[in-house]
Write a structure and sequence with these properties.
mainly alpha
């Protein structure tokens, strides 16, 4: 139990960083899977509400923008985990990771993307991306709980309540 208390944040950080970083290849190379998710599914959905192009390459929520946010979150998490004097950076990384992955979970649940992503070739991921997103969400939330003594000081009226 003492090991988890002392080093659990490292395991959580490693999991989040692994999931985010391993997906960067797909997001930064415009892979067919990424094109299907961001352009075919999400951008078409956004266009039906009058917002075409927001998920397309160059859009405000394009794969490269989302991937960049995941990369920054990973770097902040890893820096804060490895340098004890920089624990606040880990809390910021966890908050950014939680925000990014909350968006991913929303789009899996409330758009045609779905929980089990079906690709152009008819294959399905069986919900793997959604399950990983839920795991990342939980890990980021736990990291924020672990680091609440740091970030709660930043909220007016919350000093001493952490």
């Amino acid at each position: 139990m003492n090991f988890l208390r002392r080093h659990g944040h490292l395991l959580l950080t490693a999991f989040v960083a692994f999931v985010f970083i391993q997906s960067l290849f797909f997001k930064f190379t415009d892979s067919p899977e990424t094109q299907y998710i961001f352009v075919t599914k999400l951008d078409a959905w956004a266009a039906s509400f009058g917002f075409p192009g927001v998920f397309a390459p160059g859009g405000i929520f394009s794969a490269k923008v989302v991937g960049s946010a995941e990369l920054v979150a990973s770097l902040l998490l890893l820096t804060g985990a490895l340098l004890p004097a920089w624990r606040a950076v880990q809390a910021i990384g966890a908050a950014l990771g939680l925000a990014v992955i909350s968006g991913a979970i929303f789009f899996h649940l409330f758009t045609p993307l779905g929980v089990a992503v079906r690709n152009n070739d008819g294959s399905s991921d069986g919900g793997e991306l959604f399950m990983l997103a839920c795991g990342v969400w939980l890990a980021c939330a736990l990291l924020l709980f672990i680091r609440k003594g740091i970030w709660m000081k930043w909220i007016p009226g919350m000093r001493g309540r952490a």
